[in-house]
């Protein structure tokens, strides 16, 4: 209840404050980017290195469940739910716009609007939505999944997965409460900001398609439609609601991307993506440690910090959600599944939609950079879509995809938040519908307040700050995972078997030495014989 009241109060302040609040938030974003960028970078590097280590070692084979247990969901259904829950409509929008920002202010000393700048612009979005980002979801997923399905202990919130908080001491209770509050703030800030970003863009696109004025009334209608969709899926719960929506999410996205790739500059997009893969490998380490200590943070660094904060804000609810659908899978399967369905899926959007935007700009078909700088990203997206054949069909497909993306993410977020804030639930019990609906309403109110404030920088600030406190929680989760996996029964059994095998080898070496002797009468130096040969030699004498 206190968190609900807090977000209602924040929403009212945002609605009343308007542009003055936006100025304060922009200043905060600048400070975080310049002074705390190193913290975001390090936590992502450490997390990435840890899970690469897990999947290439014996620990990757540990199953979250019983030894012979099969996965609860098939691979495609599992991947669809993972991707659809984590990725909202923002990727349909930002994948068209982000490359245009990078062309104007490219990293690594590249000249703006140069060939090198175009190559880097196509790659940078794929870095921010790629393996490094998706690996951040692995920490809470593995920690929660291991406790749920291996230790058979109920987990209701992220703090339950931090083993040093497992106790009744006052300091443990206090820290658990702090972690749970940070989780709620992170989810609300990150997901709420997503809706605040996406509704104005959908409104602009619909206005371009139908001629309806792009005003507050249209945005309120869109919020009402979202509320109806959220209500239905949240009432249905995980099975029959969110899972079905996830399937629709994947298929509409695949159809939209396939059409753009087929009717767009296919060869240019494929050439650009081939080049981007090479650049991503080449620049991966420099981008992962890009703090610019001796200058002003550039667009690339600011965008990465913004995305790192955004991914962190999604981290707690994605961990609980993916863990709940991952029973019967090994750690290696889960992490590689995130990279396959998640990272490659996101990179596909930037490869195709980002490549198409860059092609339009480079060939002079549209001056998208001028549109971005003068009219904003909503106008850019509407302009890009207007260049596609069958414009009305593509506009409609795009808007439907955006709605399904949004509905899947918000419904899953409300489901998980209601779990975090419920009284203790029995095994298999879902949070009450009243609790779930409360969070749907809070999401709508908070998101609407962000729309009233307006400005992409406002959204960036909320996303960055929402993930900031959670940056300090991740090391404790990683430590908990390491401690649990080292004491896993299958790992202990493996160690015992290896110890027995080494002992057998040692005894064999000792026995070989015992059953050999040196022949003193060897003509050409020492000769090693078995005891039987030595006795045979004595008998001959």
TrEMBL record:
The keyword Cell membrane applies. Its main location: membrane. Signal peptide: none annotated. This is BCCT family transporter. InterPro entries: BCCT_transptr. Keywords: Cell membrane, Membrane, Transmembrane, Transmembrane helix, Transport. It comes from Nicoliella lavandulae. It is found in: Cell membrane. The lineage of its organism: Bacteria, Bacillati, Bacillota, Bacilli, Lactobacillales.
């Amino acid at each position: 209840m206190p968190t609900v009241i807090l977000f209602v109060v924040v929403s009212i302040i945002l609605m009343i404050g308007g542009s003055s609040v936006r100025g304060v938030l922009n200043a905060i974003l600048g400070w975080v980017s310049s002074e705390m960028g190193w913290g975001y970078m390090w936590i992502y590097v450490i997390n990435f290195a840890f899970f690469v280590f897990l999947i290439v070692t014996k620990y990757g084979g540990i199953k979250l469940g019983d030894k012979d247990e099969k996965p609860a969901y098939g691979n495609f259904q599992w991947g669809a739910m993972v991707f659809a829950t984590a990725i909202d409509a923002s990727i349909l929008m930002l994948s068209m716009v982000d490359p245009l920002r990078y062309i104007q202010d490219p990293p690594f000393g590249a000249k703006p609007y140069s060939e090198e700048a175009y190559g880097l612009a196509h790659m940078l979005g794929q870095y921010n939505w790629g393996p490094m980002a998706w690996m951040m979801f692995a920490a809470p997923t593995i920690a929660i999944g291991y406790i749920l399905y291996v230790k058979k202990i109920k987990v209701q919130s992220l703090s339950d997965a931090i083993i040093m908080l497992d106790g009744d001491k006052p300091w443990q209770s206090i820290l658990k409460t702090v972690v749970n509050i940070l989780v709620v703030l992170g989810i609300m800030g990150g997901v709420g900001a997503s809706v605040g970003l996406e509704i104005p863009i959908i409104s602009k696109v619909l206005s371009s398609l139908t001629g309806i004025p792009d005003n507050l009334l249209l945005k309120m209608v869109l919020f009402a439609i979202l509320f109806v969709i959220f209500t239905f899926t949240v009432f249905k719960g995980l099975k029959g609601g969110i899972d079905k929506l996830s399937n629709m999410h994947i298929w509409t996205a695949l159809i939209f991307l396939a059409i753009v790739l087929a009717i767009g500059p296919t060869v240019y997009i494929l050439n650009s993506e081939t080049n981007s893969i090479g650049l991503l490998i080449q620049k991966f380490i420099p981008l992962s440690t890009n703090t610019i200590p001796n200058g002003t943070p550039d667009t690339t660094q600011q965008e990465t910090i913004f995305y790192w904060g955004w991914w962190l804000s999604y981290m707690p609810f994605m961990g609980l959600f993916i863990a709940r659908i991952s029973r019967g899978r090994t750690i290696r399967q889960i992490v590689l599944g995130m990279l396959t369905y998640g990272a490659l899926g996101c990179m596909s959007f930037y490869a195709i939609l980002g490549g198409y935007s860059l092609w339009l700009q480079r060939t002079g078909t549209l001056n998208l950079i001028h549109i971005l700088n003068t009219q904003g990203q909503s106008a850019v997206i509407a302009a890009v879509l207007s260049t596609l054949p069958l414009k009305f069909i593509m506009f409609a497909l795009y808007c439907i995809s955006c709605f399904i993306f949004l509905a899947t993410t918000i419904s899953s977020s409300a489901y998980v938040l209601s779990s975090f804030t419920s009284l203790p639930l029995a095994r298999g019990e879902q949070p009450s519908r009243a609790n779930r609906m409360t969070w749907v309403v809070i999401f709508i109110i908070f998101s609407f307040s962000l729309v009233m404030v307006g400005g992409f920088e406002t959204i960036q600030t909320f996303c960055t700050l929402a993930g900031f406190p959670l940056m300090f929680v991740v090391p404790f989760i990683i430590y908990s995972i390491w401690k649990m996996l080292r004491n896993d029964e299958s790992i202990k059994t493996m160690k015992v078997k290896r110890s027995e095998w080494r002992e057998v080898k040692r005894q064999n070496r000792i026995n070989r030495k015992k059953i050999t002797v040196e022949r003193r009468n060897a003509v050409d130096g020492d000769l090693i014989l078995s005891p039987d040969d030595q006795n045979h030699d004595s008998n001959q004498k």
